[in-house]
């Protein structure tokens, strides 16, 4: 754990995409944001940012002091989940490595209540406390949520934002295929411009 304070880079001001409140894995997939002009904002770009992101979602204490290795694990899982979401949204086969990474992360979550022994009260069973392995616990929760989304009733609504260059995913609702009003406005403006330039 580190005590060094790292500056947090400002977020790009986009509201959460539809479905992020229900699915933490969707929020994770959308934590690397492509912006106009070829710019990208990575909300997990540093250990402090990764700690902040996890802390906002109740997956880590705000003062956990993430290290680069922890942030790297989180970013790696994000890329595998993005790959699975893209495969599902496009109707393509998933990469076996992405499935393996999500399954591996899910196995990090302790499921069995282990036998413990208290010197005063005697034997009892309890699940190991996740603070002993904060990152493993967070990865397991995020991976399980991704698996639930991909196999649950919302899977057919999973789609990529329809406004280039945006790279975020969302749960489609109604006819809306954009992750934000800004992306919807940009897509409509692009269509209007294409119609004007195509007219003789």
Task: Give an account of the 3D structure.
- This protein has six helices and six strands, in the order H-E-E-H-H-H-E-E-H-E-E-H.
- It is of the alpha+beta class and 200 residues long.
- A two-stranded antiparallel ribbon has the order 1-2.
- Helix 4 crosses helix 5.
Secondary-structure-derived class: alpha+beta
**Helical coverage, percent range:** 40-55%
End-to-end span in angstroms? 64 Å
Poorly predicted spans:
1-10
Shape descriptor reads elongated
- Please state the oligomeric state of the protein chains shown: single chain
Whole-number mean pLDDT = 85
Q: Taking strands numbered 1, 2, ... along the chain, how are they ordered across the largest sheet? A: 1-2
The count of strands amounts to 6
Reading the helices and strands in chain order gives HEEHHHEEHEEH
Number of H- or I-type helical stretches:
6
**Main pleated-sheet profile:** 2 strands, antiparallel
Radius of gyration: 20 Å
- Give the amount of beta strand, in percent: 5-15%
């Amino acid at each position: 754990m580190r005590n060094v304070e790292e500056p947090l880079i400002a977020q790009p001001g986009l509201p959460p995409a539809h479905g992020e409140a229900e699915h933490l894995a969707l929020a994770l997939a959308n934590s690397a944001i492509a912006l106009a002009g070829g710019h990208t904002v990575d909300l997990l770009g540093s250990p402090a940012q990764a700690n902040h992101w996890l802390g906002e979602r109740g997956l880590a204490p705000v003062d956990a002091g993430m290290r680069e290795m922890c942030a790297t694990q989180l970013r790696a899982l994000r890329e595998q989940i993005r790959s699975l979401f893209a495969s599902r949204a496009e109707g393509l086969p998933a990469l076996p490595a992405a499935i393996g990474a999500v399954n591996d992360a899910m196995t990090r979550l302790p499921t069995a209540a282990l036998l413990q022994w208290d010197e005063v009260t005697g034997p009892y069973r309890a699940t190991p406390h996740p603070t002993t392995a904060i990152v493993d616990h967070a990865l397991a929760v995020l991976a399980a949520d991704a698996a639930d989304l991909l196999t649950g009733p919302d899977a057919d609504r999973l789609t990529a934002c329809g406004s280039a260059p945006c790279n975020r995913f969302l749960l489609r609702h109604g006819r809306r295929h954009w992750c934000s009003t800004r992306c919807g406005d940009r897509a409509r403006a692009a269509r209007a411009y294409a119609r004007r330039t195509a007219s003789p």
